[in-house]
Each structure stands twice: as C-alpha cells, then as structure tokens.
Design brief:
mainly alpha, MetI-like fold, 11 helices, 73% helix, 0% strand
Length: 294
C-alpha cells in the first residue's frame, strides 16, 4: 500500500471521527433545544417553582445556580491560581512535588458523586453547615480546584523562557517577575480556562444533591439582608440549583406540566453552558489579539 493511499485512509478516518462527534453534539443539542425552547418565556424565568400546581417557573433555581457558581469561583480562583503558580515556578522536582501532582490528578479524576458524599460528610454534617449554598460551593471548590491549578500551570509553562529571564536580568525578584510579567502574559489562557470551568460547574448536579439540597425557600428579592432566611444572599439556606431541579422534576415531579418544566429547564441550562463556552472563546481571542497587538 502506497504512502498516498495510507494518508488518504488516515485522513478519512480522522474526518469521520470528527463528523461523528460533531453529529452527536448537534443531535443532542438540537433535541434538547427543540423540546425546550418553546417552553421558555419571561414568566417561566421569573416565576417561582410550584411543587404541585401547574405554571411554575425556575426563578429561584436559576438564581441559586449563578449564586453558587459565583461563591465557588470566589473560593476556587485564588487557591487554584496560587497552586498553579507554585507548581509552575517554585516547585522543585522531588517527592513533595510528585505528591502534590498526584493529589491534583486524583482530585481531577474523582467522580462528582464522590465529591458530593465527601461534602455531605464534612461540610454538611461535621462543620454543621447543613444543606446550604456554602456547603454546595465548598464541594464544588473541591471539584473545580484541580482544573484551575492545571489551567494556571499550563498557562505559565506555555510562556517563553526569555520573558522570565528578561525580568530577572533587570534585577527584579522572582515574585515581582511573576506579578508584573508572567501573570499578565498568562492571563488570557487562565481566564479562558476559568470561564470554561465555570460552565462545567454551572451544569453540575451530582455534587450538589448531597450538599446544597433539594429544596429552596421562596426567595424575597426585595430583601438583600444576608442573614434573613429567605434572602437571596443567605449562604446558609438550602439552594436547589437548576441542574438539580431538572433531576428532581424528572424523577419525582407530580405537577401536571412536569414535561414542560423539565424540557424548559434543560433548554435554559444548555443555553447557559453554551454561552459560557462561546463567551470564553470570544474573550480569549479578543485578549490574545490585544496582547499580540494584532
């Protein structure tokens, strides 16, 4: 068999695999959006859910999803970026570094249901946070932390060595070189990875089943006192997120329009995750163009 024939066969297989993956994705998204988009309305997005009656919406669940995500990223980004900088710039080859990398890899490979059980045992029961926003955010921090560490480390390692050497040659300290030269240069890739991980966290459900809870109080959006039980900002109230709501409605929903709520909620969730991904790509491209001067 000639090299040209082999090349054509390999190219055909690669194109076929890409087409199959794209076809599966398009089919899945098309099915979810086709079934759910017609059920989305302003009333659906701004009405509280009803456990028994028809006509309920997803207002509280949608807010909980974004609120848990924001708290998670506030907890995750400083720790994850610091860990990635340590592994990329300070960690020396040895047993300690190998142990840290192993811990990061193990955390990254843990099933989300295991993280949820861990969160229930530690945050819900041991620390007494109960089913709450903070319990869910801490569990998702454990779930998301290795992703941010890897993104940061890869962003720093992708930089040219001359940038670091140039800063040190000018008499800057190692930390000042990282702060003023390396971190701004790696910022586009780090930010893109953070936004992509945010989309992953937004659609997570298994880790939140055992930490954030399966219910939410009727939130009063005119009361922003963080210690009020029905305040949207209360960190210690139960917080059923949109993904958990979809699971609960499909498995035990008894409202007459259960299919409408499930399909509409799934469509909203998919649209939000798509927007996260598209925004990450657009922002990353814009920042790269700005830094490269094109």
């Amino acid at each position: 068999m000639s090299s040209k024939v082999t090349n054509r066969i390999a190219l055909s297989v690669i194109i076929l695999c890409a087409a199959v993956m794209a076809g599966i994705l398009v089919s899945l998204l098309s099915y979810i959006l086709f079934k759910g988009v017609t059920n989305i309305s302003w009333q659906f997005l701004t009405t509280s859910a009803s456990p028994f009656l028809a006509g309920g919406g997803i207002k509280d669940q949608l807010w909980n999803s974004f609120y848990v995500l924001i708290i998670t990223m506030i907890l995750t980004i400083p720790i994850g970026v610091s860990g990635g900088i340590y592994l990329a710039e300070y960690a020396k080859p040895g047993r300690l570094t190998s142990f840290i990398r192993t811990c990061v890899e193990v955390l990254a490979s843990l099933p989300s249901i295991v993280v949820g059980m861990f969160g229930m045992l530690i945050f819900v029961n041991y620390f007494g946070f109960r089913f709450s926003v903070i319990s869910g955010a801490l569990a998702l921090t454990v779930f998301n932390l290795p992703v941010i560490v890897r993104v940061t480390e890869d962003g720093f390692r992708a930089l040219s060595l001359h940038q670091k050497e140039g800063g040190l040659a000018l008499g800057l300290t190692h930390w000042h070189t990282i702060k003023t030269i390396l971190l701004p240069a790696a910022f586009p890739s780090i930010l893109t990875g953070i936004i992509l991980s945010a989309g992953r966290v937004f659609g997570e459900s298994a880790a939140l089943l055992f930490t954030a809870g399966l219910s939410t109080p009727d939130l009063n959006f005119s009361n922003w006192n963080p210690i009020s039980p029905n305040s949207p900002l209360n960190l210690f109230r139960s917080a059923e997120t949109l993904s958990v709501h979809i699971w609960a409605v499909n498995t035990g929903g008894i409202m007459p329009d259960v299919s409408r709520i499930a399909n509409g909620s799934a469509a909203v969730l998919v649209v939000c995750v798509l927007l996260f991904n598209l925004f990450a790509r657009a922002l990353g491209k814009m920042i790269n163009q700005k830094f490269s001067g094109k």
